[in-house]
Amino acid sequence: MVEGIIGAKDVRKAFGGLDLGRQRTIVDALLIVTVNPAATNTGRRLDTSLIDLGVEGRPVIGVAAPLPVEIINTTQWWVQWLPLAGPAFVAIGVLVGVILCNRTNQEWAMKATRCRAISW
User: Fold this and answer.
1) If you count Cβ atoms within 10 Å of the first and of the last residue's Cβ in the chain, which end, N or C, has fewer?
2) What is the pTM of this model?
């Protein structure tokens, strides 16, 4: 798991050269990372003073230095539009139904007008 990191002359550079999945595995194995809730809404900016790092069996310490954190959104672009898909299909169905029903009503109205015209 930590091959290439232990014994490296520049551990930071060796760790930075790993892919993200392997970095997460190493951090998960070595540290307990806790992101505490913020008192106020800070938007998408992460307040690093809310991050606590700990090691199994040792007290939790706060992170003193700011850490570079990248928020990655891995959801597809269309997922956020899914809640609108159902109502859109219903609205289209209603519109088609109204158009068809109106056409049928117009046909019957024309037939009724012809029947009245013939009966007079």
Assistant:
1) C
2) 0.37
